[in-house]
Amino acid sequence: MGKQENGQEDNVILFPGLIAKLVEKGMTSLKEKKYYDALRYFQESTELEESHPQARYGLVITNIELNRLEEARKHCESMLNEGIGQYYDILQVYVSLLVQLGDYQEVVHLLETVIAEEKLPPNMAESFYQLLDFSRQMTSDSVEIVEDYEEDSIDGMTNTEELIQNLEGGDPDQQWGAIQRLSQINSPKVQEAYRSFLKGKENNPVLKSYLIQILKELHSKETFEVHKFGETFEVNIGQLEDIFHEKFGANVLDRLDKSLSQKSPSLYEMVQQVWWHYLFALYPKSPKPLHTETWACALHILGSALIEGEETTEEIVDQYEVDEKEVESAVNHMKVIESLILTLNDSHT
Prior knowledge:
The protein is mainly alpha-helical.
């Protein structure tokens, strides 16, 4: 906990049951789908007691719910290495994460080792064997794909060029596929294709967010010029932080929670998805104006319109005491973004 000048350890006296209360709040927030609140409580718990099993497991589950699979994987891996929590329960989550992340070779290596060295619990054995069989098949298929690729293309350049062409001129589905596959190819041509895509005025802003996220996961330190919604700006991938973005998003939902969650829980859950989709489309920019009440009101109006609720726009605006024109602009912008997301999702089906 730190040291004093005389070299003595600081004596930090915790309130009785503080960690248990923080973990309980984290679990409650998780159940209520207030994931950023849950994340904060679990982080505070582990700062006070690093090896607390429930808090550490809470970090895993919360990161999964937030689609931060790499973060969840790291937390799972450290729990396994440190012997924290129920080993096989953690292992099951860890293997599922590896499958979702496409790391099938690691699944095969891990499960073959575990099966050879230990006796699996009867209630989990079938699941582990199924995951092992699936991952073996996927790694085998990957080898076949590589062999076909080597036969059909000269030194791999043809395939890369085709992917770049899809990124530059394909439909959203082809562009999304190209982004995923190009992320495994590190070359100046690919980097240049990324630059061109991010600053292209006609390219889908949601796909640009995916690409920025992938570049961040690849630990890029480069600066890229990005065009979104009529604005061109520079983004240093290495300096991107999600903290403020997420905090503002959570604050808006907390405000909306007071007005909507008790009245219509299902509607509140639906507009949560709309809100996070919208923030992701804007990423790494933040919504304007940075006014919690305005965006909570806009989401309330949008949600009410989606279910053809009885409340009028004027009645909702009065509840939040905000500028009606700013709210109208916010609602319209979210509708535009949501239509883009739906277009992208439809192209994947």
